[in-house]
Amino acid sequence: MSNLGILDWPGVLFGLVNDLLLFVLPLPLTLVFWAAVSGWATMWVYRATSNQEKLAALKPQVKAVQEKLKRYDGEFSGLIPLIRENFRLSGRHIGLAIGPALIAGIPVLFVLVWGSNEFGAHFPEAGARVNVEVSSDSVERDAENWRWTGTDARQLPSAVDEPLRWRLSWPDQTAALETATGEPAVELPPEVPTPMLHKRKWWNLLIGNPAGYLASDNPVDSIRMGLPSHEILPVGPGWMRGWLFTYFVVLIAVSLGFKFYWKVH
What we know:
The chain is of the alpha+beta class. It is built from seven helices and eight strands; from the N terminus they run H-H-H-H-H-E-E-E-E-E-E-E-E-H-H.
Protein backbone atom coordinates (compact mmCIF):
# COMPACT_ATOMS: atom_id res chain seq x y z
CA MET A 1 0.00 0.00 0.00
CA SER A 2 1.33 3.42 -0.92
CA ASN A 3 2.50 5.79 1.78
CA LEU A 4 0.97 8.67 -0.19
CA GLY A 5 -2.39 10.26 0.50
CA ILE A 6 -4.58 12.02 -2.06
CA LEU A 7 -3.06 15.42 -1.26
CA ASP A 8 0.49 14.03 -1.52
CA TRP A 9 0.42 13.14 -5.22
CA PRO A 10 1.16 16.64 -6.59
CA GLY A 11 4.20 16.61 -4.31
CA VAL A 12 5.75 13.88 -6.46
CA LEU A 13 6.06 16.40 -9.30
CA PHE A 14 7.12 19.16 -6.89
CA GLY A 15 9.89 16.92 -5.59
CA LEU A 16 11.26 16.23 -9.07
CA VAL A 17 11.33 19.94 -9.88
CA ASN A 18 12.87 20.79 -6.51
CA ASP A 19 15.66 18.26 -7.01
CA LEU A 20 16.60 20.12 -10.19
CA LEU A 21 16.42 23.48 -8.42
CA LEU A 22 18.75 22.24 -5.69
CA PHE A 23 21.49 21.84 -8.29
CA VAL A 24 21.65 25.62 -8.65
CA LEU A 25 19.90 27.05 -5.57
CA PRO A 26 20.33 26.57 -1.82
CA LEU A 27 17.37 25.15 0.09
CA PRO A 28 16.09 28.55 1.38
CA LEU A 29 15.87 29.95 -2.15
CA THR A 30 13.97 26.92 -3.41
CA LEU A 31 11.45 27.62 -0.65
CA VAL A 32 11.18 31.24 -1.84
CA PHE A 33 10.58 29.92 -5.37
CA TRP A 34 7.70 27.68 -4.25
CA ALA A 35 6.20 30.44 -2.13
CA ALA A 36 6.29 32.80 -5.12
CA VAL A 37 4.72 30.17 -7.37
CA SER A 38 2.02 29.61 -4.74
CA GLY A 39 1.30 33.34 -4.57
CA TRP A 40 0.99 33.59 -8.34
CA ALA A 41 -1.10 30.41 -8.61
CA THR A 42 -3.60 31.29 -5.89
CA MET A 43 -4.28 34.75 -7.36
CA TRP A 44 -4.46 33.39 -10.93
CA VAL A 45 -6.96 30.70 -9.90
CA TYR A 46 -9.06 33.22 -7.96
CA ARG A 47 -9.15 35.61 -10.92
CA ALA A 48 -10.03 32.79 -13.32
CA THR A 49 -12.83 31.31 -11.19
CA SER A 50 -14.43 34.49 -9.80
CA ASN A 51 -16.89 36.76 -11.62
CA GLN A 52 -14.72 39.85 -11.79
CA GLU A 53 -17.35 41.88 -13.68
CA LYS A 54 -19.97 41.42 -10.97
CA LEU A 55 -17.44 42.06 -8.21
CA ALA A 56 -16.27 45.23 -9.95
CA ALA A 57 -19.87 46.45 -10.33
CA LEU A 58 -20.58 45.70 -6.67
CA LYS A 59 -17.64 47.69 -5.31
CA PRO A 60 -19.00 51.21 -6.02
CA GLN A 61 -22.42 50.20 -4.66
CA VAL A 62 -20.88 49.10 -1.36
CA LYS A 63 -18.80 52.25 -1.19
CA ALA A 64 -21.84 54.46 -1.85
CA VAL A 65 -23.88 52.84 0.93
CA GLN A 66 -20.99 53.09 3.37
CA GLU A 67 -20.62 56.79 2.56
CA LYS A 68 -24.33 57.31 3.27
CA LEU A 69 -23.90 55.53 6.61
CA LYS A 70 -20.99 57.77 7.54
CA ARG A 71 -22.87 60.95 6.70
CA TYR A 72 -26.28 59.95 8.05
CA ASP A 73 -27.49 62.26 10.81
CA GLY A 74 -31.20 61.54 11.02
CA GLU A 75 -33.60 59.35 12.98
CA PHE A 76 -32.62 55.77 13.80
CA SER A 77 -35.57 54.47 11.79
CA GLY A 78 -34.01 55.96 8.67
CA LEU A 79 -30.71 54.23 9.42
CA ILE A 80 -32.17 50.72 9.36
CA PRO A 81 -32.66 50.55 5.54
CA LEU A 82 -29.06 51.67 5.01
CA ILE A 83 -27.75 49.03 7.41
CA ARG A 84 -29.91 46.39 5.72
CA GLU A 85 -28.62 47.42 2.29
CA ASN A 86 -25.03 47.37 3.52
CA PHE A 87 -25.45 43.84 4.86
CA ARG A 88 -27.15 42.74 1.64
CA LEU A 89 -24.34 44.03 -0.56
CA SER A 90 -21.65 42.69 1.76
CA GLY A 91 -23.33 39.28 1.79
CA ARG A 92 -23.53 39.30 -1.99
CA HIS A 93 -19.83 40.16 -2.18
CA ILE A 94 -18.97 37.29 0.15
CA GLY A 95 -21.18 34.94 -1.85
CA LEU A 96 -19.40 35.86 -5.08
CA ALA A 97 -15.91 35.59 -3.58
CA ILE A 98 -15.97 32.71 -1.10
CA GLY A 99 -16.19 29.85 -3.61
CA PRO A 100 -13.33 31.09 -5.81
CA ALA A 101 -11.30 31.90 -2.70
CA LEU A 102 -11.62 28.32 -1.46
CA ILE A 103 -10.68 26.95 -4.87
CA ALA A 104 -7.71 29.34 -5.01
CA GLY A 105 -6.42 27.87 -1.76
CA ILE A 106 -6.01 24.39 -3.27
CA PRO A 107 -2.56 25.07 -4.82
CA VAL A 108 -1.36 26.40 -1.46
CA LEU A 109 -2.70 23.30 0.29
CA PHE A 110 -0.78 21.01 -2.08
CA VAL A 111 2.47 22.91 -1.49
CA LEU A 112 1.95 22.97 2.30
CA VAL A 113 1.49 19.20 2.44
CA TRP A 114 4.59 18.60 0.33
CA GLY A 115 6.65 21.38 1.96
CA SER A 116 6.11 20.05 5.47
CA ASN A 117 8.19 17.03 4.46
CA GLU A 118 10.66 18.78 2.17
CA PHE A 119 11.48 21.79 4.37
CA GLY A 120 10.50 20.50 7.81
CA ALA A 121 12.57 18.05 9.83
CA HIS A 122 15.94 16.55 8.92
CA PHE A 123 18.05 13.77 10.38
CA PRO A 124 20.52 14.80 13.10
CA GLU A 125 24.19 13.91 13.00
CA ALA A 126 25.07 10.44 14.25
CA GLY A 127 25.58 10.55 17.99
CA ALA A 128 23.40 13.63 18.53
CA ARG A 129 21.05 13.35 21.49
CA VAL A 130 17.39 13.10 20.50
CA ASN A 131 14.29 12.82 22.68
CA VAL A 132 11.72 10.18 21.74
CA GLU A 133 8.24 9.47 23.09
CA VAL A 134 6.65 6.04 22.81
CA SER A 135 2.93 5.34 23.19
CA SER A 136 1.45 1.87 23.51
CA ASP A 137 -1.98 0.58 24.50
CA SER A 138 -1.02 -3.08 24.37
CA VAL A 139 2.04 -3.00 26.66
CA GLU A 140 1.84 -1.89 30.29
CA ARG A 141 3.27 1.59 30.79
CA ASP A 142 6.61 0.69 32.37
CA ALA A 143 10.08 1.35 30.95
CA GLU A 144 11.13 -2.10 32.15
CA ASN A 145 8.84 -3.56 29.48
CA TRP A 146 10.98 -2.05 26.70
CA ARG A 147 14.55 -2.45 25.54
CA TRP A 148 16.67 -0.32 23.18
CA THR A 149 19.51 -1.83 21.17
CA GLY A 150 22.10 -0.13 18.98
CA THR A 151 21.98 3.14 20.90
CA ASP A 152 22.65 4.65 24.30
CA ALA A 153 19.16 5.39 25.65
CA ARG A 154 18.39 7.08 28.97
CA GLN A 155 14.87 7.17 30.32
CA LEU A 156 13.42 10.61 31.03
CA PRO A 157 10.78 11.37 33.66
CA SER A 158 7.18 11.60 32.46
CA ALA A 159 3.77 11.83 34.08
CA VAL A 160 1.60 8.71 34.33
CA ASP A 161 -0.76 10.03 31.64
CA GLU A 162 2.08 10.85 29.22
CA PRO A 163 4.03 8.61 26.81
CA LEU A 164 7.26 7.02 27.99
CA ARG A 165 10.24 9.20 27.12
CA TRP A 166 13.89 8.46 26.39
CA ARG A 167 16.88 10.53 25.37
CA LEU A 168 19.02 8.50 22.99
CA SER A 169 22.05 8.85 20.74
CA TRP A 170 20.99 9.04 17.10
CA PRO A 171 22.33 5.86 15.50
CA ASP A 172 25.06 5.75 12.88
CA GLN A 173 23.54 2.55 11.50
CA THR A 174 20.37 1.21 13.13
CA ALA A 175 18.81 1.37 16.57
CA ALA A 176 15.87 -0.79 17.55
CA LEU A 177 13.16 -0.77 20.18
CA GLU A 178 11.71 -4.08 21.29
CA THR A 179 9.64 -5.35 24.16
CA ALA A 180 11.26 -7.00 27.14
CA THR A 181 10.17 -10.34 25.68
CA GLY A 182 12.08 -9.63 22.45
CA GLU A 183 9.15 -8.65 20.22
CA PRO A 184 10.45 -6.12 17.63
CA ALA A 185 8.68 -2.75 17.55
CA VAL A 186 10.53 0.13 15.87
CA GLU A 187 13.78 0.65 13.97
CA LEU A 188 15.53 4.00 13.71
CA PRO A 189 16.18 5.91 11.58
CA PRO A 190 12.96 5.78 9.53
CA GLU A 191 13.12 5.77 5.73
CA VAL A 192 12.81 9.56 5.54
CA PRO A 193 13.08 12.27 8.20
CA THR A 194 9.67 12.49 9.85
CA PRO A 195 9.03 13.45 13.47
CA MET A 196 6.45 10.73 14.03
CA LEU A 197 5.72 7.12 13.13
CA HIS A 198 2.29 5.67 13.88
CA LYS A 199 -0.26 3.14 12.74
CA ARG A 200 -2.32 4.05 9.70
CA LYS A 201 -5.28 6.32 10.49
CA TRP A 202 -8.30 7.28 8.40
CA TRP A 203 -6.90 10.73 7.63
CA ASN A 204 -3.87 9.16 5.97
CA LEU A 205 -6.14 8.63 2.97
CA LEU A 206 -5.75 12.41 2.49
CA ILE A 207 -2.28 13.09 3.90
CA GLY A 208 0.17 10.21 4.15
CA ASN A 209 3.25 9.65 6.25
CA PRO A 210 6.26 9.56 3.90
CA ALA A 211 8.11 7.20 6.25
CA GLY A 212 5.33 4.63 6.17
CA TYR A 213 3.31 3.17 9.03
CA LEU A 214 3.64 0.82 11.94
CA ALA A 215 1.92 -2.53 11.45
CA SER A 216 -1.52 -2.89 13.03
CA ASP A 217 -0.19 -5.59 15.40
CA ASN A 218 2.89 -3.59 16.42
CA PRO A 219 3.21 -3.25 20.21
CA VAL A 220 3.94 0.46 19.68
CA ASP A 221 1.06 2.72 18.66
CA SER A 222 3.22 5.75 17.90
CA ILE A 223 6.74 7.07 18.39
CA ARG A 224 7.52 10.78 18.28
CA MET A 225 11.09 11.92 17.60
CA GLY A 226 12.49 15.35 18.39
CA LEU A 227 14.25 15.76 15.05
CA PRO A 228 15.86 19.12 14.25
CA SER A 229 14.12 21.41 11.75
CA HIS A 230 15.62 23.21 8.78
CA GLU A 231 16.45 26.82 9.60
CA ILE A 232 15.55 29.04 6.66
CA LEU A 233 16.38 32.32 8.40
CA PRO A 234 19.64 32.52 10.40
CA VAL A 235 18.29 35.16 12.81
CA GLY A 236 15.20 35.78 14.89
CA PRO A 237 13.16 33.68 17.33
CA GLY A 238 12.62 30.01 16.65
CA TRP A 239 9.16 30.46 15.12
CA MET A 240 10.63 32.80 12.49
CA ARG A 241 13.48 30.52 11.49
CA GLY A 242 11.35 27.64 10.26
CA TRP A 243 10.03 27.31 6.74
CA LEU A 244 6.41 28.36 7.35
CA PHE A 245 7.20 31.97 8.28
CA THR A 246 9.24 32.60 5.12
CA TYR A 247 6.73 30.73 2.99
CA PHE A 248 3.72 32.75 4.08
CA VAL A 249 5.52 36.11 3.99
CA VAL A 250 6.59 35.54 0.38
CA LEU A 251 3.22 33.99 -0.54
CA ILE A 252 1.26 36.98 0.76
CA ALA A 253 3.62 39.53 -0.78
CA VAL A 254 3.54 37.89 -4.23
CA SER A 255 -0.23 37.29 -4.22
CA LEU A 256 -0.89 40.92 -3.25
CA GLY A 257 1.51 42.06 -5.96
CA PHE A 258 -0.42 40.13 -8.62
CA LYS A 259 -3.72 41.33 -7.14
CA PHE A 260 -2.74 44.95 -7.74
CA TYR A 261 -1.06 44.21 -11.08
CA TRP A 262 -4.10 42.35 -12.42
CA LYS A 263 -6.55 44.70 -10.63
CA VAL A 264 -8.34 41.74 -9.06
CA HIS A 265 -11.51 42.49 -7.09
